[in-house]
Write a structure and sequence with these properties.
heterodimer; A: alpha+beta; Butyryl-Coa Dehydrogenase, subunit A, domain 1; Butyryl-CoA Dehydrogenase, subunit A, domain 2; Butyryl-CoA Dehydrogenase, subunit A, domain 3; 3-stranded mixed β-sheet; 10 helices; about 50% helix; B: alpha/beta; Rossmann fold; 7-stranded parallel β-sheet; 3-stranded antiparallel β-sheet; about 25% strand
């Protein structure tokens, strides 16, 4: 498997600080040395490469944009660059990082008590503990407000009942951030708030979801709660504002996904470019000399370059406190659709070799089919933006 | 006892070289610059020597090059070096470097065995000569033994070991020392480490003029033979006999 490389046609990296460039290159080196040699087998064997977790922790990737509690406090562009290069390796690794950083550590950091932060964040930062995020349910994906998981407040604690589905890291997680309806506690209109549920809590079980064609190097699970009693202090106190707390987590994660998709697109473009320059067909010429192939390559490079600059600008807006959820909807939707399109074109350029595990393009293509669906489907982001520009909600 | 590591910056190995219209120089706009990998090996060895010997004081990175060389120095600082000095210049002058090494009170000077761009290995040898230091080239392993430095290298399939009484200068190969990554925490710490940037007073004119630069001739097109290794080998033999007619 060839090393991943940075695609930088319009000197995107000249807009980065020297620390940001150093983080970009260091992450690229890490992925080339630690991820590329094992990732294809992990995908084919449907195995989460958990040996990478302590290494990712030692690099300081987990909870990178958070301050204190063992986290480095990077800016969001740096967090994005890390995700970009991780996903140039594989979406599974980026998904692991997104969940741990944005969906587990971020809510603990933003909505947790001091005791919760002290207990969990340092170990999550090193990878000593793994977390997962339970929002989606079997019957409630795009509409999380309809969730049926319920937390009943009793004298002994909260009793949780319900199930969560499509949960990344679920079966290997030491703790789950679980969103549930809880009347009398949540101040949000949907009565939703979040709880920490530690593994081995009686009444909490997980079921590994297998038979996937996508994100095969990632753990996907169902979380099941049957009269699961958790202590009062496991409520995240800041999460009682309701569903908007969950959406804050998702906005952070979606920005990372937007960056990650650029990485997957770069990996597919570079593979297609290299292949087309060496693959000879007709008159002893490489297929890169064919007009149709050149158009495909130019389209790929143009889309990647546009996505880089748009995503950088929107992430700078986040750093300045000016970003809107709709900005993030635009880059998540644009970049993932762009990457999925590029992966399919790259697969076609490689011909029959495109389906071989010798090349990464079909692995990325299969992964991106999940990425375009999770954390807000392509359609949901269209409707979010449509509502913003017209003032009319279509859902 | 300080260790000085001589650092240089080279284009990434995947760089596609493009010449400027003057046909004498390289267009640097599309180049990704990296820390010379052999200098990276030297930094790793310096860090290990420090970890193994409390008498080692600071690891100081020293480079002579253009402004952009700061990035290579920052990477070395993020790996764990203590501070860095950049002598800003468009060329390397061992007289200037030698004066700086003396000032930094180094007992041991390390460098890469070569730079990966021009394959040159002149700087460290020149520096050893100017400073009259014991000099070992291409060491793949460095260790302490009773206050003395043992430098080992492979040569023609054999191992040679040198016992060095400091001060000395050693250039480094990789050996078994995998360079550590610049971790995020390392990068954040490096922001606060001292990085002196000074200007060289040496003359720019070193008596060498580049008259012309040319890219190497393009290689012919590449043909990849599909199939199992045995099938591909058979097809290759057939092509060598029937198409290339070299067998």
């Amino acid at each position: 498997m060839a090393d991943i490389r940075m695609t930088d046609f319009a000197e995107f990296t000249s807009l980065l600080s020297s620390e940001e460039n150093l983080i970009l290159n260091s992450t690229k080196d890490f992925v080339n040395k630690e991820v590329m040699p094992i990732i294809d087998d992990a995908f084919m064997d449907a195995r989460f490469p958990d040996e990478l977790v302590p290494k990712v922790g030692a690099m300081g990737f987990l909870g990178a944009p958070l301050d204190g509690y063992g986290c480095p406090g990077l800016n969001y562009v740096s967090y994005g660059l890390i995700n970009m290069m991780l996903e140039a390796g594989d979406s599974a690794l980026r998904s692991f990082n997104s969940v741990q950083s944005s969906l587990v550590m971020f809510p603990l950091h933003s909505f947790g008590s001091d005791a919760q932060k002290t207990k969990f964040l340092p170990k999550l930062a090193t990878g000593e503990m793994i977390g997962c995020f339970g929002l989606t349910e079997p019957d409630h994906g795009s509409n999380p407000a309809g969730m049926v998981t319920y937390a009943k407040k009793t004298d002994k604690g909260f009793v949780l009942n319900g199930a969560k589905m499509w949960i990344t890291n679920g079966s290997v997680a030491d703790l789950a951030i679980v969103w549930a309806k809880c009347e009398g506690v949540s101040e949000g209109k949907n009565n939703i708030c979040a709880f920490v549920v530690e593994k081995n809590t009686p009444g909490f079980s997980t079921r590994l979801m297998t038979q996937k064609h996508s994100l095969r190097a990632s753990i996907t699970s169902e979380l099941i709660f049957e009269d699961c009693l958790i202590p009062h202090e496991n409520l995240l106190p800041g999460s009682t504002v309701g569903l908007k707390a969950a959406l804050m987590c998702l906005n952070s994660a979606r920005l990372g996904i937007a960056w990650g998709a650029i990485g997957a697109a770069m990996a597919c473009y570079q593979t297609a470019l290299d292949y087309s320059l060496t693959r000879v067909q007709f008159h002893d010429k490489p297929i890169a000399s064919h007009q149709l192939i050149q158009k495909d390559l130019v389209d790929m490079l143009t889309e990647i370059t546009k996505a880089q600059f748009l995503t950088l600008q929107i992430t700078r807006l986040k750093e300045q406190g000016k970003v809107k959820p709709e900005h993030i909807s635009m880059v998540k939707r644009n970049n993932v659709a762009m990457a999925l399109g590029i992966s399919r074109t790259a697969r076609a350029i490689l011909g029959a070799n495109g389906i071989s595990s010798e090349y990464p393009v079909m692995r990325h293509m299969c992964n991106l089919e999940s990425v375009i669906t999770y954390e807000g489907t392509d359609n949901v982001h269209i409707l979010t933006l449509g509502k913003y520009i017209t003032g009319i909600s279509a859902f | 006892m300080n260790i000085v590591v001589i650092v240089s910056q080279t284009p990434d190995t995947t760089t596609k070289v493009v010449l400027n219209s003057d046909k004498k120089s390289i267009d640097e706009s599309g180049i990704t610059w990296i820390l010379n990998p052999y200098a990276e090996f030297a930094i790793e060895k310096a860090l290990k020597l420090k970890e193994a010997n409390p008498q080692v004081g600071e690891i100081i990175l020293l480079a002579m090059g253009p402004e952009r060389t700061v990035e290579a120095l920052r990477q070395g600082l993020a790996m764990g070096a203590d501070r860095a000095v950049l002598i800003k210049s468009n060329f390397v002058n061992t007289e200037v470097l030698a004066a700086k090494v003396k000032e930094l009170d180094a007992k041991l000077v390390l460098g890469g065995k070569k730079s990966i761009d021009t394959e040159s290995a002149n700087t460290e040898a020149g520096l050893a000569a100017r400073l009259d230091l014991a000099f070992v080239h291409c060491a793949n392993k460095l260790s302490w033994e009773g206050g003395k430095l043992i430098a080992s290298r492979e040569i023609s399939g054999e191992n040679q070991s040198f016992v060095l009484t400091l001060p000395a200068l050693v250039t480094c190969d990789k050996g078994e020392d995998e360079p550590r990554y610049a971790s995020i925490m390392g990068i954040m710490k490096a922001k606060k480490k001292e990085l002196d940037e000074i200007y060289s007073s040496a003359q720019d004119d070193i008596g060498i003029e580049i008259v012309e630069a040319r890219l190497p001739a393009l290689r012919g097109s590449v043909k990849i033979f599909d199939g199992s290794p045995a099938e591909a080998a058979e097809k290759l033999l057939k092509a060598l006999r029937e198409e290339a007619k070299v067998l």
